[in-house]
Design brief:
GO terms for molecular function: methyltransferase activity. The chain is of the alpha/beta class. The chain has helices at 3-8, 15-44, 46-50, 58-65, 69-81, 98-104, 113-116, 118-123, 126-135, 147-158, 163-167, 174-180, 193-201, 214-226, 242-245, 266-276, 303-320, 331-341; strands at 86-88, 93-95, 183-187, 206-211, 232-236, 251-257, 277-288, 346-350, 358-364. The protein is globular.
Length: 365
């Protein structure tokens, strides 16, 4: 055989690898379907009503949840096959084991069912993203129904429970300063749950939240008014030119929670943060824990999911604004580079025991 013919000959296929990948793929299809079942059960209240661990029939569960019995029965069938619930064929009852309830309902420390919502949510824009593969550009925030609702549930588990005990103490002086009264800005605030919690805890301080989403800002403003938080305000704002529009030396504390990587122009935002901090100010940033290199993320416990979310949302919404498209997995190396370019002299990074997904940065001028 000539050298050219050898080069054109198909590579030998390892049958063992084929069989192994086939098994993995079939398992992945089933596990992905299980996540869809979990998302439906979380949103419909099925999981919450199964959390007590008591056996129920499909009719009893439908009555408790006020849902259609035929759909409940079919969901229970899928949940049985997926080993989400235990089924007794003699009594025709179904039971959510307490070990599962601890992970899939609010009865445990974290409700993992919240995260099952991301895949069906992103699936709604698959056609839009596919168009971007062919023609470039991105998908605007307005195409993502329920995104801020799900993000609020997400941050309700990673940020809110540890905000006072673990996140603020990363800058040891902050709790006392907040008690005395300082000016605080949260960028990309979404529905503003963290700011509401801070405003209630520290009434002497003044809080402002900016976000691009009109829906999120409207929701946050209404809830803050209901709670009588006169020291808190929200504003719909595009932060693409924050390096120029940020008020100089206006705030003592700036925060971003999972908000930098999907900005149109993240470096502009970071330069604006540096510009608006007063002398002695602190910037606290929560963002995705990752490497800036693909090979560095091979062992990431959530790497595949996070790259998928980047394609389906974070990178795409940035590109839709004519932005950089930094992506979810921009990583520590790129983060340090950008923080340095923005003018921060002190850069610390931490991980918290409860949160394998995020890094927590403490930055000072």
């Amino acid at each position: 055989m000539t050298a050219q013919a050898q080069a054109q000959a198909p590579a030998a296929i390892d049958a063992t690898r084929v069989a192994g990948f086939e098994s993995r793929f079939v398992a992945a299809l089933n596990e992905a379907a299980m996540l869809q079942l979990v998302s439906l059960a979380h949103r419909s209240g099925l999981l919450a009503h199964l959390a007590d661990g008591e056996p129920v029939t499909s009719s009893e569960l439908a009555a408790k949840t006020k849902l259609n019995e035929r759909y409940v029965r079919e969901w229970l069938g899928g949940a049985t096959v997926a080993a989400l619930v235990e089924h007794d064929p003699q009594t025709l009852t179904y039971r959510l084991p307490p070990e599962h309830a601890a992970l899939l309902t609010d009865s445990g420390e974290a409700n993992l069912a919240v995260y099952a919502q991301y895949l069906p949510l992103m699936g709604q824009v698959e056609d839009d993203v596919l168009e971007c593969f062919h023609h470039g550009g991105g998908v605007p925030y307005t195409r993502y129904a329920r995104f801020h609702e799900v993000m609020a549930e997400d941050s309700g588990q990673t940020v809110l429970p540890v905000l006072f005990d673990a996140i603020l103490p990363l800058a040891p002086e902050l709790p006392a300063r907040l008690e005395r009264g300082i000016d605080v800005l949260d960028l990309g605030c979404g529905r503003g749950l963290a700011l509401m919690k801070l405003a209630e805890r520290f009434p002497a301080s003044r809080f402002t939240g900016y976000d691009l989403s009109r829906e999120a800002i409207g929701w946050a403003t209404e809830r803050a008014a209901r709670r009588g938080l006169s020291n808190l305000r929200f504003e719909e704002r595009d932060l693409s030119d924050f390096d120029l529009t940020a008020p100089a030396q206006r705030y003592d504390l700036v925060t971003t929670f999972d908000a930098i990587h999907d900005q149109a122009h993240p470096l502009n935002l970071l330069k604006g943060v540096r510009r608006t901090l007063r002398q002695g100010g602190v910037y606290l940033a929560q963002d995705i824990h990752s490497s800036s290199h693909h090979h560095g993320d091979r062992d990431h416990p959530m790497g595949t999911l996070l790259y998928t979310l980047s394609i389906m949302h974070c990178m795409s919404v940035s590109l839709a604004q004519g932005g950089e498209g930094l992506g979810t997995m921009w990583g520590r190396e790129k983060a340090r580079e950008y923080f340095g370019k923005a003018g921060f002299g002190s850069i610390e990074v931490h991980q918290l025991p409860h949160d394998i997904q995020n890094d927590y940065w403490v930055l000072r001028p």
